[in-house]
Amino acid sequence: MEIGQSYNFELRHAVLVYGDQRRAFATLHEVTRQEEGTPLLGPARPLTLAFLRVLAQGLGSQVAPEILPANVLARTPEMLVWWNQAARLPMFFGAADEEAKKLNGGIFPHPPLVFKVRGGELFVRALERNVRPEGTTQLMNAPYWNVGGDARVCLGTARAPKDASVASIPAWQAAFHRSSFTHAVGAMRLTTHPGGFVGLWRSLAGKNGFQPDISARPGRLCGIS
Predict the structure, then answer these.
(1) CB within 8 A of 122, min separation 6: which ones?
(2) Helix, strand or coil for residue 74?
C-alpha cells in the first residue's frame, strides 16, 4: 500500500484483547453493519493461526518467495542482512577535506562487510576475518565516514532502493560505495591507524588487501545494531 492512492476499506473484524498483569488472550468478532448507528460485534471466537497469517499479510508482513544466495545472513519481512567478502573498489570523497579530496576516485581494498537494511535505512559493520560470519562473530566498526555509532549510514543524495528484497542488494551496495564520504558522524573511533580516517585510506591506496586495522565493536552478529 502506498500513501496517496485511493482504497475503499470496510470494517470486517474486531480483535479484543483481555488480560491482567501476567496473562492475556484475544477474541475475534465478526462485525455487523447497521443502516443506522454503530456496527455490532458478533459472538466471540478464538483466534486461529490461519486468521493471523491473513492478517499479517494484509498488514504487509509477508516476504515474497526468494532463493537466498549464500551471502544472505538473515531475512524477515522487516529486515535483510547480508555480507560481502573483502574487495577492491573505488571510493569517492567530498570536497570539504582537502587531503581526502586527493584520494577521490582511487581504487582501495575494502574489508569484508556486513550490511543490513531495515525501515528503508542502511546499516554497515566490518568483519575482521574474510569468512562468512556466524551468530557469535565479533563485529567491527566500519572504517568509513558517513557511518554513525549505531552503524546507520547517511547516504545523503545517493539513490537507494525502495525495497529490501534480495534482488535489491546490488543497488544498496552501489548506493553505499558510490556515494561520497564527506564527514565523520558522531565521536565514534573509526580506525586505530595513527593518521586517522584519511591516513588509513591514504596508506591503502594501490594496495591489494585490507589489514584488520579497525576498532572492535562490543557486539555480535545476531545483535547487529
Answers:
(1) 115, 116, 152, 153, 155, 160, 172, 175, 176
(2) strand
pTM of the model: 0.71
C-alpha cell at 120: 528503508
Nearest CA-CA partner of 16 in 5, 1, 26: 26
Decide: 139 and 84 in contact? Cβ < 8 Å.
no
CA distance 20 to 73: 38
Is a pLDDT exceeding 90 seen at residue 73? yes
Tell me the per-residue pLDDT of 175-220, one tens digit each, with 9 for 90 and over: 999 999 988 887 777 888 888 889 999 999 888 888 766 655 555 4
pLDDT in tens, 50-63: 776 666 666 655 56
Residue with cell 587531503: 99
Name 28's bridge partners: 15, 45
Q: How many CA atoms lie within 13 A of 52 on its CB side?
A: 6
pLDDT of residue 217: 56
In the block, residue with C-alpha cell 544466495: 69
Around 192, how many Cα atoms within 13 Å sit in the side-chain half-sphere?
8
Burial class (CB in 10 A: 0-12, 13-18, 19+), 57: exposed
Do residues 71 and 52 lie in contact, with contact meaning Cβ atoms separated by under 8 Å? no
